[in-house]
Each structure stands twice: as C-alpha cells, then as structure tokens.
Amino acid sequence: LRSKLPDVGTSIFSVMTQLAQEHGAINLAQGFPDYDPPQALLAALAQHVTTPGHQQYAPMPGLPRLREAISQKTAHVYGVAAPDPATEITVTSGATEALYAVLAAVVHPGDEVLVLEPAYDLYGPAIRLQGGVPVYVPLTLPEFRPDWDRVKAALTPRTRLIMLNTPNNPTGAVLTPQDLTTLAELLRDTTTLVLSDEVYEHMVFDGQPHHSVLQNPELRERAFVLSSFGKTYHATGWKVGYCVAPPALTTELRRVHQFVTFSVSTPTQHALADVLPDATLFETLPAFYQQKRDLFRELLAPTGFRLLPVEGAYFQVANFSALSPGTDDVTFARRLTQETGVAVVPISAFYHDGQDHSLVRFCFAKQESTLRAAAQRLQQGL
Ligand code: PMP
Ligand code: GLN
Q: Which Pfam families match (predicted)?
C-alpha cells in the first residue's frame, strides 16, 4: 500500500496515554479533564437521549436551536454582531472535524498554508492530505510570540491560508489585539484566508479577555473561527465543536462537512443548546483554570523544572535541562512516565521536524488531588 502519510506514526497523545497506562503513571500528557461536565449538562443529555424524536439525524449544518444559542453567545461574549445561524454557523464533530473540513474545502493541491510552530499535531498532516504545502514559521522562544516580520516574509501569492491558535496548545500563549491588527494589515491586499482555532477561548488568565479573530472586522471577513464544546464543558469525549465563518466561506465548509460526517449526534446538540444560554458555566472557567495553573506552578516550583509563562489554555510547558542535561525531550518524557510515574508530552511532537528545546508539556486540567499526587512523585523521583 502506498501510504498517504508515510512519515506519520501514531499521534503522541495516544502513545503517551498508552505508556501511562502500562506504567501506572498519572496522565498529565493527553489534554483532558479528570472531572465531569456540569451536572446540568449531564441531566440534559440524559433527558434528550431518552426523548422520542431526538434520536435521528440532525440537520446537516447543526440543530437550529444550537446554532441560535451559539450566535447569541458569540455576540454576548465578544460584543460583535450576532453571526447568522442560517449562513454563518456550522456544528461539527469536534473542532477536529472542523479543522479537517475547512482545509479540505479551501486548500487546492500546491497551495501553501502557514503554520506557526510549535503547533497542534494534526495541522501539518491534515494540510498535506489535501495536497497543500505547510510552510512553518517558528514562534519566537522563550515566550513563543509570533514574529510578524517572518510571517510577512513567508507570505506568497500561493498562500491560501494562515492557521492561528489562541490560546495556544501547547505553549499557553495568547494573541493580542495588536497581533490581530498587524496580521490584518499583512493580509489586506491578499486572498489569504485565516483559520483561527480558538478551542480554549474560555481559558485566559490574569484578568485578560480572550481576543477573538471575530472581533477584528477585517480578519473576520476572511476567517473560519473554531471552538469546541469538549473544552468548555469538560466533555472531550462528546466531540462537538463549531465553526463561525462568513456566508461564502460557510457554504464551502458545508460542501465538505456534508460528505465527511453529514451531521453531529442529535441528543448531544440538544443538551448543549439547553445549557449554552447559561453564561455562568463558561464565565467561571478562567478563575477555575487559573487556580489550577497557580497551584500546579507552586507545586512544581521546588522540582527544578523551569516553568514557562501560561497565559491561557490548560497546559504548562517546562524546561527540564537543569534536571537532565543532554537528554532529548522524547527520552526525558518516556523516563518521566516509566520511572517517575508522571506522563507528559515532549514539545518536539509539535514541530514538523522534531525540534528539541528540552521542553515538555503538562496538562493541569486535573483535580487538585491528581495535581498534588503528580507533584509528589516529581519531587521524590527527580
Ligand atoms: N485544536 C486544538 C488546539 C486542540 O487542543 C484540540 C483538542 N485536542 C482540538 C483542536 C480538537 O478539538 P476537539 O476535541 O473538539 O475535536
Ligand atoms: N487536544 C488534546 C491534547 O492536546 C488531545 C487530543 C487528542 O488526544 N487527539 O492533548
């Protein structure tokens, strides 16, 4: 068989989770919470999953009542004109399907797609599956800021799309309004589109708001903006997300979405439509995760890891070079999992060429007891 992705192994998240299970390690590798969704959401699902009439295909773009709730939420949170549920909002099988469908919809063979690295692991392979050419622009260490001069230098007439991710997985960095203004200026006379992966939109810390591409009118006109209910409602296993995009872009996205999954599970959409109008559920998330971030940083302080700043999302990146000089990050992550009993992800997994900066990623979307148990192992085992 001639593989379409010959150089791609199994995703690092599956690999580290399996290794964690084999060695009884605490899994701070794969990003998922070890607590449940809000009770109101679980109760709503229990109700809809037993409601006759809610068990068949949902409309292809998503349940109208869920799209309406997304529209109102978007206007409320970002202070923007409400996106039209009929023409600008599409419910997808997680942000993952939205990413794939957007790329399939707009990338022609030979088109270039700019990716700021380190980047979420599916971006590069999903671009290549469309015959696209990923063009990688490094984020600048140590704070993983975008260097817009380098982005400018990488833009060509073939640049079909630039992919943004704010708050960022794995780095925890966020884009500022100035970043968005600068990007809008760079793209002004081009036909380059924007895909903005904002699945961690409700996890931004230290009193800062999340700055959405939807708030920049120039970018919004050319952008697909993605979110994920899995992140917002501690329900990564539900795999429901959505995309907000102008009508012409939404039309193209739906051309693909209808032939990838057609539609998303009906009872879960009803349950989400029930709870989404209650803003307290997501408005309390920044404080909820900031507390976890602060606790975890405090717990790691005595361990010898050098902690990078975390402005958003639920990941802590840490430099281990003082603990294990000369060790590459993959070896270090494996040892930490096997010998210390705490599973992490090596940051090289987020670089297409496996660049090693002696960094690993911890997920702190865990109960306090889990974080304390992990820290205890780290303090004793290092
Ligand atoms: N983008 C980023 C940056 C993510 O971290 C994730 C979650 N792993 C996704 C997309 C996928 O989201 P979902 O689980 O809704 O498919
Ligand atoms: N987004 C999650 C992470 O970064 C994992 C998603 C997955 O397992 N594919 O860890």
A: Aminotran_1_2
**pLDDT tier for residue 290 given thresholds of 50, 70 and 90:** very high
Has residue 42 been placed in a domain? no
With a 6 Å cutoff on the Cβ, whether 30 touches ligand 2 is yes
Please check whether residues 80 and 128 belong to one and the same domain.
yes
Same domain as 296, residue 226: no
Coil, strand, or helix at residue 301? helix
Does 7 map to a domain? no
Query: What residue's CA is closest to ligand 2, atom 4?
Result: 31
Residue 142 and residue 161 in contact, taking contact as beta carbons nearer than 8 Å? no
Question: For the segment 177-207, what is each residue's pLDDT rounded down to a tens digit?
Answer: 999 999 999 999 999 999 999 999 999 999 9
Domain final residue, candidates 227, 256, 276: 276
CB 245 within 8 A of CB 98: no
The verdict on 185 and 315 lying in the same domain is: no
Contact 179, 143 (CB under 8 A): no
**Do 342 and 195 lie in a common domain?**
no
Closest ligand relative to 11 C-alpha: 2
pLDDT for 381:
80
Question: What's the pLDDT at 347?
Answer: 98
Helix and strand numbers (H, E) in the chain are 15, 13
Compute, in angstroms, the gap from residue 31 CA to the centroid of ligand 2.
5
Answer yes or no: do 20 and 70 share one domain: no
Is residue 142 situated within a structural domain? yes
Whether 365 is covered by a domain: the verdict is: yes
Q: Is the CB of 13 under 6 A from ligand 2?
A: yes
Ligand nearest to the CA of 31: 2
Q: How far apart are CA 284 and CA 38, in angstroms?
A: 12
Ligand 2 centre to CA of 313 (Å) is 12
pLDDT of residue 55: 97
Looking at every residue in the chain, the average pLDDT score rounds to 97
Is 80 exceeded by the pLDDT of residue 320?
yes
* Same-domain status, 148 and 270: yes
Number of domains composing the chain = 2
Could you tell me if the CB of 236 is within 6 A of ligand 1? Answer: yes
Q: Tell me, using a 6 A CB cutoff, whether residue 172 lines ligand 2.
A: no
Residues near 57 by Cβ (< 8 Å), separated by ≥ 6?
262, 263, 266
Q: For ligand 1, is residue 169 a contact (CB within 6 Å)?
A: yes
> Does 382 have pLDDT greater than 90?
no
- 199 in contact with ligand 1, CB cutoff 6 A: yes
The ipTM assigned to this model is 0.98
Helices 64-78 and 266-275, axial angle in degrees (round to 10): 40
